[in-house]
Structure formats: structure tokens, C-alpha cells
Specification:
Number of helices: 4
Shape: globular
Radius of gyration: 16 Å
Strand content: 25-35%
Structural class: alpha+beta
């Protein structure tokens, strides 16, 4: 399958009916508070064509950050007062964090919303990067901008379930490592949603 076809196939698959996801999917014993307030956020899932095939752009967060230091993440963040919606938030954050001009992306669709342990309801906005660009990481927040093969994250067989203690409780989560990059937690769960809709073994 050609690179444009691979990205187009992902876009077409986004219309399939799916359930929202959360950081608690693999931990059914967790009791969530009724009426809890979740803050809206948007992340961009940039799909980039290239000579090496279609790629997914990711970031490694700065180790100096208070929340999730050093973790792998999509560019994105909470919806601010000036953002029209979560899509606008994702595009704004991607421009700030990795220098991706909103005019250089085509929105393909959305993955299911994802609830995080930190109290956000995140909308993953899947987009095609239209023209080659050079990432410009925002030094205060982003240690590195890198990309992984789309084919790698679309294959369900690449995902593992691991566990660690968090706040005194064993928490299970998805991982989808690639080379030196340990992709796990909410990012891996959202990528697993992408793999699920793409239907790859």
C-alpha cells in the first residue's frame, strides 16, 4: 500500500463506531467518582508521508516538567479560553510545541475520547501533514520530536500490557515500544485505538 493510500485508509477507518477509552480500561476494579469533572483537552496525531513510509509524529516531554516528565506524548494540551474547541487547542499546541503550522495539516477525523488519571477528557485529532517541515521543539516543554512508522503502531501484535504500582495500587497499561522510545500509558492507549479501528493483526 502506498503512503497516501495508507494514510487515507486510516482516515476512512476513523468513521467506525467505537467506545471512549480511559487510563482505567485495564483496571476494571477502579471505582470512579460519580459526577467527576473532567477538563477538555486535545492532542494532535500527525501522520506524515515520507520516503520511509507513513510516520506518526510524537514528542518526548522535557524531564524538567512537573507533570509526566520525560514521557512520550502527542503534541497537545488543555483547551484554553481562547480556543474555539478541542481541535483548535490541539492545533495551537502543536504549533507551539513542535512548530507545525495549522495550515500545513488536513484534519482526517477523531479517535474516541480518552479519560486520563489526571482528570482530562482528551480528544485525539488525527491529521495528515501536507508538506515536509522541520520540527522546532519548544525547549521548555519538549526534549525531542521524533517519528515512528505508522505500520508499527497500527499492528495490534506490537502492543504489550505491563504494570507498575501507582499511588499504592497496581496499575496495568498498554505499551508499544519502538527502538529507544518507551511509548506507554495514555499515548499507547490512544494509539491502540488507532490500531483497533485500522483492523491490523
Amino acid at each position: 500500500m502506498s503512503v497516501p493510500d495508507a494514510i487515507a485508509a486510516v482516515g476512512a477507518a476513523l468513521g467506525r463506531a467505537r467506545q471512549p477509552t480511559s487510563d482505567f480500561d485495564l483496571n476494571p476494579e477502579t471505582v470512579l467518582a460519580e459526577g467527576r469533572r473532567l477538563r477538555p483537552a486535545g492532542v494532535l496525531v500527525p501522520l506524515m508521508p515520507g520516503e520511509r513510509g507513513a510516520r506518526v509524529v510524537l514528542t518526548q516531554r522535557s524531564s524538567a516538567l512537573k507533570h509526566h516528565p520525560g514521557q512520550i506524548a502527542f503534541p497537545g494540551g488543555k483547551q484554553e479560553e481562547g480556543d474555539a474547541d478541542v481541535t483548535a487547542a490541539a492545533l495551537r499546541e502543536a504549533q507551539e510545541e513542535i512548530g507545525l503550522d495549522p495550515a500545513n495539516v488536513e484534519i482526517l477525523g477523531y479517535l474516541p475520547t480518552h479519560e486520563t488519571v489526571t482528570g482530562f477528557i482528551v480528544t485525539p485529532v488525527v491529521a495528515r501533514v501536507l508538506f515536509p517541515y522541520t520540527p522546532v521543539p519548544e525547549e521548555a516543554e519538549v526534549a525531542e520530536v521524533f517519528d515512528v512508522p505508522l505500520d508499527h503502531v497500527l499492528r495490534c501484535s506490537r502492543y504489550r500490557i505491563e504494570a507498575r504500582y501507582w499511588r499504592g495500587t497496581m496499575r496495568r497499561y498498554y505499551t508499544v515500544p519502538f527502538g529507544p522510545y518507551y511509548i506507554w500509558g495514555a499515548t499507547a492507549r490512544m494509539l491502540r485505538s488507532l490500531a483497533d479501528v485500522a483492523g491490523r493483526p
